[in-house]
What we know:
The structure is a single chain. This protein is of the alpha+beta class. The chain has two domains: 3-46; 66-140, Alpha-Beta Plaits, CATH 3.30.70.3460. The chain contains five helices and four strands; from the N terminus they run H-H-H-E-H-E-E-H-E. The protein has a four-stranded antiparallel β-sheet. It starts with a helix and ends in a 17-residue tail after the last strand. The model has no long low-confidence stretch (mean pLDDT 87).
Amino acid sequence: xxxxxxxxxxxxxxxxxxxxxxxxxxxxxxxxxxxxxxxxxxxxxxxxxxxxxxxxxxxxxxxxxxxxxxxxxxxxxxxxxxxxxxxxxxxxxxxxxxxxxxxxxxxxxxxxxxxxxxxxxxxxxxxxxxxxxxxxxxxxxxxxxxxxxxxxxxxxx
Length: 157
């Protein structure tokens, strides 16, 4: 990966803005043509560096008032299947397997978003039936302190 690739990726990993032609704006910043930026994006996708572009929704500002991370204790041989079932649910935005710790045996995690505490409770009941976990903990979000896209590489000079 060369310096120009890193500069393009740095800018792509931030906000593209609401422009009708965000790649043209990026090209202007970098002294390139829109075609050069688009060709770089296609190359990054072909190389597996970029999987997708997506919008970041401010879920609390958009009406999702009850949000929680749920930590599940799932038998190791059931992790893949339980994770796949939970990941299919429309109200689950993230689903991860993680290492356990001596005082924290939970190994599967989901982020759940609901418009009310009552809806969150309904979603959790559905997830319990689907997951078949032996134990779980609900860690409700109280206040969002930071939500940004990860920036790759350092700001270009």
